[in-house]
Amino acid sequence: MPRTTDGDGTPVPQRLLNAATRLFAEQGYDRTSVQEIVEAAGVTKGALYHYFGSKDDLLHEVYARVLRVQQERLDHFAGMDAPVEKRLRDAAADVVVTTIDNLDDAMIFFRSMHHLSPEKNKQVRAERRRYHERFRALIEEGQREGVFSTATPADLVVDYHFGSVHHLSTWYRPGGPLTPQQVADHLADLLLRALRP
Amino acid sequence: MPRTTDGDGTPVPQRLLNAATRLFAEQGYDRTSVQEIVEAAGVTKGALYHYFGSKDDLLHEVYARVLRVQQERLDHFAGMDAPVEKRLRDAAADVVVTTIDNLDDAMIFFRSMHHLSPEKNKQVRAERRRYHERFRALIEEGQREGVFSTATPADLVVDYHFGSVHHLSTWYRPGGPLTPQQVADHLADLLLRALRP
DNA sequence: TTACACATACCGACTGGTTAGTCTGGCTGT
DNA sequence: ACAGCCAGACTAACCAGTCGGTATGTGTAA
């Protein structure tokens, strides 16, 4: 039996990534020592450096996972067969729910970019930009069709909405008065209302 | 002649605070050593610890300054003699312009809260809450008067707007296609449009 | 006016503690 | 016996904060 799953059923790399995600979100990247991570994962440094090249690498994996998931979900909603208002609303609400479901990821995402090495940072920015552009395309489509106002450049509208998504990790607390879905519906509604012609 | 101003006309505490603000924004709090700060300010550690109790204290000063300035500006706009739509629009646009004019502050503000000591953190949160509530009161006033939609709770609307304000430090770059005032007008416009009944 | 005391402003070497990453070696299944 | 998997002691670097010391200005009293 390989050691990769001893302790519980989760493979060691996963356990390390989960522990790192939680700790990075709770304490910040710099305040989290590699020692803490391996202890939380129930292994030692040898294991960590066997699977990951550096502490920085671990952080990069968090970004890669978030970006992959969000891009897939956006593609799903944007590619549906429905009026653009509905596709935008669904996509906008979905990213809110997904973000709330993974608040730790969101916390890290917008707080720790500058801890990535320059080339990893660049890579993450490029990926994020693709996401941004996909979202913007949806808005521009609606603007061309005349169902969305053209008063504000689509770029700015995207930043407006994602600002609020980003901000979720600052104020949303599970157990608050609103469920993730209710928050998502409200925020998507605000976006669509702002876009009314 | 006291040493407080030798070198140039700026007093040493100011020079230290300016250097710290810039470096914290550029590299993050943990990545900035006290040595770097004192070198950038043209003094030594002795001077820093003469005026400030700790590195953490320096960060706290940044927060205190931002909170004081923003609260004063909000009070000014909210207290004017004008319809609530205009007061809200002006306040919403002003915070955008002020934030862009001090992007370093904004960068630090939302990225470094967790680097403050627990009691300083609590203090900052309390101050920030007062600000949030003042802004919310404006929206609620408009909702009572019937000029703003009540579809979304005022609290959420505030977080929606300030999300986009925080986000500015992530995407806005001086020299971009839009002036600070143009960005502010657009973002205030989006807010007001979302609030149309 | 001079002399002495005292405070403020600052210098910079030093200390105690922490950290990311390395490396040697052992275990386990095939 | 070989290869992937991992343990844990070790190292080299770094950093916040301290502390004894120096310089300059200000008040006071002879």
TrEMBL record, chains A, B:
Keywords: DNA-binding, Repressor, Transcription, Transcription regulation. It comes from the Bacteria. SUPFAM superfamilies: Homeodomain-like, Tetracyclin repressor-like, C-terminal domain. InterPro entries: DNA-bd_HTH_TetR-type_CS, Homeodomain-like_sf, HTH-type_TetR-like_transc_reg, HTH_TetR, KstR2_TetR_C, Tet_transcr_reg_TetR-rel_C_sf. Residues 10-70 form the HTH tetR-type domain. GO terms for biological process: negative regulation of DNA-templated transcription. The keyword DNA-binding applies. The keyword DNA-binding applies. Residues 33-52 bind DNA. GO terms for molecular function: DNA-binding transcription factor activity; transcription cis-regulatory region binding. Coiled coil: none annotated. This is TetR family transcriptional regulator. It comes from Streptomyces cellostaticus.
